[in-house]
Amino acid sequence: MKKRVQHFPIAGFSSVMGMAGVSAALNKFYHLQWFPEWPYLIVMALTVLTFVVSVYLYSEKAYRFPEEVKTDFKHRIRINFFSAITISFLLMAIMFYGIWPMVSLPLWWIGFIGHTYIMLHTIRFWIQHNFEIKTFNPAWFIPVVGNMLIPVIGVDFIPRELALVYFGIGFLFWIILLTIFMNRVVFHDQLPKKFLPTFFILLAPPAVGFASYVKITQSLDTFAFFMLYIAYFFAALLLMLFKSFKNLKFFVSWWAFLFPLASVTLSSVAAYQLTSHTIYMYLAWFFMTLSIVALFVVGAKTLGAIKRKELCVEED
Length: 316
Description:
Blueprint: H1 2-6, H2 14-31, H3 38-64, H4 66-74, H5 83-97, H6 101-128, H7 142-149, H8 151-154, H9 160-187, H10 204-217, H11 222-240, H12 242-246, H13 258-275, H14 278-307
């Protein structure tokens, strides 16, 4: 057990991100009377349980093996996953916002303050270290997504101008990192197979950006649709890449499938509510179905890996 704790991956918090995103989407479907309430409550409870277990295990790792945590914090890839912790707080705040706002409020503030520090530290780390292009992968987008996620319910807690600041920072770095990503995948070696599921992270910035922009501006204009349709473009591209994902060996990075799919689901629901165009309802159902299937598959694969003691092992 001690050895397992030592190698508990910081990327494990992506499971909380994914489950919280699916829970928030199920909550939307319940309020639209498309789903009963119990799936949302079950996934919400599992999200909280997963978060508590993840926090306990990583805290235990920090207490027993502080050098391991320092290594994670200085690692050229793993450092990007520390934002998954603060994003988990933000997503759980969104998850609880409709039913327990008094629980949502402190979670959001912890996520907001924590993400501000982690985001600035990560960008400083990028600037102060020399990177080879082969070390770049879609996990670099995680801090960016956090910036765009802050205003989704944050406009109710902070001045609108401050919410716009975070949206602007997220949008700026999304464009920069997307340019680097295209250079990486087109002109250099293929990504290692364990990072292929993180391709789905490409869905999240435009999908979250759509929801964030609409909440800040209280309008559904051309720029909002611009963000949404870019998310749909990446969804279509990922469908074309289906064969690349079909025979992958299971890695903890599979949890990267969930949050982006849930983000596009939520944005599609929001677009339907604002326009009443049935095409967005069909798209919401399509992405919700994919999210639920992914949740069952990844959850089953994770439990199987835990049973075979393939998780929490030393990484390359």
